[in-house]
Write a structure and sequence with these properties.
This is G-protein coupled receptor 4-like. By secondary structure, the protein is an all-alpha fold. The protein contains eleven helices and no strands. The protein has one domain: Rhodopsin 7-helix transmembrane proteins (Rhopdopsin 7-helix transmembrane proteins), CATH 1.20.1070.
């Protein structure tokens, strides 16, 4: 394990582990009050816990190569689950705006739990297929790339539906847009570099070498911290305060610029 990757793992563990546990507990309290939206975020945070537990093993620097090998396999199951639940969050936001009547009838915890189980099953299927076949790089590339067009489609559809939505309050619109932007940024900055690298390897028919993936693994290690920001946008009060402060800063800057322009005009 490289020095940079070791340092990133320590930072993510010390900051992300306790905050993720607190976020899961807070979101679980919302589920008990029949709020369905946090179910996918809870599973996303559970996937982050799996990744951070594997990081603990890496930081401990076990002498057994077998322990390190299996922890790496489990880590990528958590990574695939993280990508899957990112798609679920984007799809849920899209259905709330674009298909409100259909979503209202399907809006129950049982349906969300069933979808979550399907995501975990697909992750294990990807794990088995990737391990038992000779096309490991291609299989992982396909499973990591498929969510990208889905995220773009759901985000574009949500943006279009929000522009015509009258019943949705401006605060709710900002919260939905903020969530989708964060999901897209997370995938683009943290997951897409690994996808591009896997594409290059598959095109050149090169074997998978763990040492060559250290740089891209370093990007993925920040994933649990990025998901904690999603938790902020699932809490209405915290998201509204953050977005309001950003808007106030923007308005203040515009007022200062207009005031300077007015003073220049008066001096002329």
């Amino acid at each position: 394990m490289g020095h940079a990757s070791h340092m990133i793992s320590c930072i993510v563990i010390w900051i992300g582990f306790p905050l993720t546990l607190l976020a899961i507990y807070a979101l679980y309290s919302l589920v008990r009050h029949d709020h369905v939206a946090p179910v996918y975020v809870i599973n996303l945070l559970i996937a982050d816990l799996i990744q951070m537990c594997c990081m603990v093993i890496w930081v401990a620097d076990h002498r057994s190569s077998m322990v390190f090998y299996f922890s790496t396999l489990i880590y990528y199951i958590g990574v695939m689950a993280s990508v899957g639940f990112m798609v679920c969050v984007a799809l849920e936001r899209y259905l709330v705006i674009a298909c409100p009547l259909w979503y209202r009838f399907r809006r129950n915890i049982k349906f969300s739990v069933q979808v979550s189980i399907m995501v975990w099953v697909l992750c294990f299927i990807e794990f088995l297929v990737a391990r038992l076949t000779n096309v490991f790089v291609i299989v992982r590339f396909i499973f990591l790339l498929l969510p990208f067009p889905l995220l773009i489609i759901f985000s574009a559809g949500t943006f279009k539906a929000l522009s015509a939505a009258i019943s949705v309050t401006p605060k709710e619109k900002r919260r939905i847009l903020g969530t989708l932007v964060l999901v897209l940024l997370k995938y683009t900055l943290l997951f897409l570099p690994l996808v591009i690298w896997l594409l290059e390897m598959s095109c050149r028919c090169l074997p998978y070498i763990a040492d060559d993936s250290r740089l891209y693994l370093s990007f993925l290690q920040f994933s649990p911290l990025a998901d904690l920001v999603l938790y902020v946008f699932m809490r209405k009060g915290a998201a509204d305060k953050l977005l309001a402060s950003l808007c106030c800063c923007r308005m203040t800057g515009e007022e200062e610029v207009s005031q300077i322009d007015a003073e220049e005009v008066c001096s002329v």
